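Handoff note, outgoing to incoming analyst
You'll be picking up this chain. Sequence as last confirmed:
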Amino acid sequence: MDAHAHAIGMGKPTWSMAAQATLHCLTGCAIGEVLGMIIGTAFGWGNVPTTILAIVLAFFFGYSLTLRGVLKAGVDFRTAFQVALAADTLSIAVMELIDNGVIVLWPDAMDAGLADALFWFSLAVSLVIAFVVTTPVNKWTIGRGKGHAVVHQYHH
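Most recent structure output, in case you need it:
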């Protein structure tokens, strides 16, 4: 275990800790993905700009959820923003890579509209796969005092 993780009282990282961190990340990513797809579809954008918007919004909402929690602990905005970046960047990046990779590889998923069952089913499956892949990444980073381990020092 990393000295930093020990210093902030995390102990040995558990799968439960990693799953909770990943679920937090998944929430922000899912909000961003769905909102991006809705906006892109509403404006009649193609797959590439819609996907880029969805990824940007996934990072935005992922960081925002962490930022909100850290700010509640009474931390100044600059520090809270740095904590959010440190806590979430790798987790969101892995989740977005897997999530969007599954959608790109899934036949016809990129062209499914919001009213199509394929859109919602492929999105749900892609997020589940992303959760499964990202959880070990988060366990590894927490064990090194990185990722969501950074956030825990601000939770009381």
